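Question:
Now give any protein.
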Amino acid sequence: MSITPLMPVYPRCDVRPVRGEGCYLIGERGERYLDFAAGIAVNALGHGDPRLVKTITEQAATLMHVSNLYGSPLGEELAQMIVNSTFADTVFFTNSGAEAVECAIKTARRYHYAKGAPHRHKIITFANAFHGRTLGTISATNQPKMRDGFEPLLPGFEVIAFNDLAAAEAAIDENTAGFMLETVQGEGGLMPASEEFLTGLRTLCDEHGLLLILDEVQCGVGRTGTLFAYEQYGVTPDIVAVAKGIGAGFPLGACLATENAAQGMVAGTHGSTYGGNPLAMAVGKTVWGIIQDEDFLAHVRQMGERLRSGLEQLIPNHDDLFESVRGRGLMLGLRMKSDSRAFVAHLRDNHGLLTVAAGDNIVRILPPLVIEENHISECLEKLSAAARDYTPPVAS
């Protein structure tokens, strides 16, 4: 038995990218792929965006890293940009989405501690959620594929049915700190929270003194056609975890909070060696400046409507394979009547289209937010061609 130099925790496919150009990836043999996976909703500006390249090059030559024991002019500027355009009063910068969620959990628990109620530590979470791969974030899920072999997990979480407001209310007790959910579930199958559910959770939080924590790591930063998905519900959260698109490919995440929710997060309560480093902050400023622009978001909505319409028109022609379309903006899912993973592999290997499988037999379609009509047309052509020559696996 011999283990590979790269720890074998990924079932890696045969695509081996060495270069990216806009909405395309190029493999080491020169093969081209239309990238409608975007690093799983990360490469919001596509590959090699000249604005991002310029920022990284100039900042890398100026200052990459200093300790957070010192002042952070770039961090202060990016935090102010975020505060100016969101519900948040304060921001903690991380390197990843899992770290942003961990910070959100700590912020919520520390809130009740600071208010003299340390027993209020339980966070209610929801079935089929994905919040990250740390011990804390897998403790907040009920998915065996992430939990098995890692017990004992952290206490203080209760997982209930998603979009079930009655179950959420019934789960509240004297130890509850708040609710934590993805506004649109990603890994779980591109399932948006219903309006009744999310607004109902906000009401329950207000009535019981709880915090509403949203995980918008995948669905935030323009992905659904608004800066954050929660804006489409008319709901104001207390804490939001973000990452992925906020760095457009550079490792960056953030925990956003109101002043009230963050009242327990004082000096010494949290930290990160690399979080908020000057290089990441320069990248974040560039990305945020592009994506928060209303014209950019309008483009995402327009392309999202065009892509959704095309997918819906595709279904009747292949109703033996496809069932429905889910999601918002450019975070769309095509539900299949058989294993979506096999079809994702077929698209990739035989038609040069990169997508991502998700739960509930969903093909996740997560293109760069800068796609144009020609990319959508190419995607739909490849999907149609793939559907014509695809044979679903026989169920065992």
Q: What stands out?
A: The chain has a mean pLDDT of 96. Residues 199 and 235 are 6 Å apart (CA to CA). The two ends are 30 Å apart (CA to CA).
